[in-house]
Amino acid sequence: xxxxxxxxxxxxxxxxxxxxxxxxxxxxxxxxxxxxxxxxxxxxxxxxxxxxxxxxxxxxxxxxxxxxxxxxxxxxxxxxxxxxxxxxxxxxxxxxxxxxxxxxxxxxxxxxxxxxxxxxxxxxxxxxxxxxxxxxxxxxxxxxxxxxxxxxxxxxxxxxxxxxxxxxxxxxxxxxxxxxxxxxxxxxxxxxxxxxxxxxxxxx
Length: 204
Known about the structure:
Layout lengths: L2 E10 L12 E6 L5 H9 L17 E8 L4 E6 L10 H17 L3 E9 L6 H12 L3 E7 L6 H13 L6 E2 L8 H12 L11
Parallel strand pairs: 2-4, 2-5, 5-6, 6-7
Antiparallel strand pairs: 1-3, 3-4
């Protein structure tokens, strides 16, 4: 995927402070340590667009990244705060939960969400709740099994299949380290966003 431009257009701590949506949006959600920001950077083809940290919970607000693609299409990726065991106060984490719910329920530009799970851990209770929440509010989930590079090659396909079986979804295997799965994930994002590339070359 040729990403010609990438910029952050919003960084807020409350969903109500977000600017009105200008383009189709796809959220990126998952546990605090699962690599959401790294996934955004890989899709954007930029190393430092989204802040990454070895400390879980680096994303503390809602970040919107606007990506301009070859062919004129524009997609907004929305990096949401992680859930799970982020090393922040309980009060702050409760605030995140409210903010995420408000965004997922009422954001008019939101088409769906990339739900990232660690392929080694599989789908956990928090992930199941998020997927059901998305479905309830007619937001299409895209299930991604990340950290694929941590598994031996022979174990990857069975592990990806096991992740998908949990919710009857086809999981996409992904690695932020190698970029594996990025093209397939881009195709899913564009499909959910309802975006077509106006180019003579098909999206890879």
